[in-house]
Target: RNA helicase
Amino acid sequence: QVYVVFSEELKCWCRALVESIWCQADGFQLRCFLVDYAKYCSVASKNIRVLAGAFAKMPHRAKKCRLHCTKPLTLYIDYCENTAKLGPAKRWDTAAIHYFRKLLE
Model:
């Protein structure tokens, strides 16, 4: 379901899909995917609203997608043998994501 959340970074209300929820001392936080900006952000639970009527039916400007047959790698460093090797990873690391975004720009 698509909701409306207030993005502190963009300083505006945005349509978003809620990815996960976690509890903090001052309330709940939500990890959201902004469907019109293709960005992830964290939002306090007080800054989320249900999307009304016709706005819920509007198509998203951003789509979540994956690169076909591309799997994340990470650099494994062995300090004892003084070697570094690429190996499989569960998630893309921050440097790889940053590099890919620069390539797209």
Observations:
- The first helix runs from residue 94 to 104.
